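Pasting as-is:
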Amino acid sequence: MNSVLKFFRDPDLGSIEARRFTVFTERGLDRIDALSNVPEEMREEMRVVASVLPFRVNQYVIEDLIDWSRVPEDPIFQLTFPQRGMLDPESFERMAELHRSGAGRDQITALAWELRESLNPHPAGQREQNRALDSEGRTIAGLQHKYRDTVLFFPAQGQTCHSYCTFCFRWAQFVGDKALRMASNEAGQMHDYLRANPAVSDLLVTGGDPMVMKTRSLAEYLEPLLGSAYDHVQNLRIGTKALTFWPYRFVTDPDADDLLRLLERLVEAGKNVAIMAHYNHWRELDTPIARAAIRRLRETGATIRSQGPLLAHINDRAEDWARLWRDQVGAGIYPYYMFVERDTGARRYFEVPLARAWQIYREALQSVSGLARTARGPSMSAGPGKVEVQGVTEIHGERVFVLRFVQGRNPDWVQRPFFARFDPEATWLDQLRPAFGGERFFFEEEYPLTAS
């Protein structure tokens, strides 16, 4: 941010002062003053885990979102700071021993890469099976095309975040290995691909977080889509956690006004602009600057839709989801998805059994009005598609999960119900088995679950 700060005058909140963006990573853990009251043993555990999984947090999250009197149970602390249980006991001890022995950076880095390989860095076949190909059959870097209607674009300038979520399924983007990274700074390739694929109605700009980009960079990707050659691209989605981790991006950052004007131009030209906001807890909406950012975004004509996974230690209570959805509806945000924690990274620490996830979802819906019941879930973004747990029931004496595809690699799968044997411990699709003596789910002729 520029050295000269500015104020924004909110009609309800009065003057809001700009803030300098200050970030801490693994090497800056000891510079976070708030950690001085955390036991040294816990701080050492953080260093060990942060050697393997990415860590990044900013001053706003530290000062405004975390209740330090509740640490380590505080949900936003769990969302942003490493915890011992994020690594399996053997992996943790191997890395901890290197730290205790005073090992050099090279040794720690070498072990970190070894351990990361066991954490399924790119789940659901996203690198091998979601490839977008050019006219000569070559993979286009930074594009994914899994579903017929929707293309994902990973702009190189947006492959970081204002803070990192500890559960993030794209953690492999942030560990410094270009081989694991999905990114492109070739706007022309993305535009060419969209022109060549008239069945695509949705472009999802994702990351990382595209909102870490300067507005002029974002405009280079999006403004050309106003041309008539892209009339079929009706919906422009931008995935972001900035409304939680850095709402100043939309209020007092130097190019905040430019960003809002860009969104307005896109809306006025007839595009449906959807901000796909990542929320994990109602506390993320509970600051004046967060509410001001939401209001400013909505004034552009863009819609805000919320999504996030159900996570142990953070939001695995129905009352938290019910309050989150109520508060979002009150702020003009559309609840969109409750996801199941993906089978990657720190999954072992955050995953919740599917049966319990469905019960939490059901109880949360029972506590809110119809306006908040737009959230679909619990949904697994698995290899074959987005699979929703619709319920648990008994059919012909067998207890089963009722499942359906919300989205599928094959569009014919969508809304087709199917059944799996009830398993109270299962946390992911590939742990389920067909009900009624079946050997394979109907979609496995085309997409075997071993490919997930």
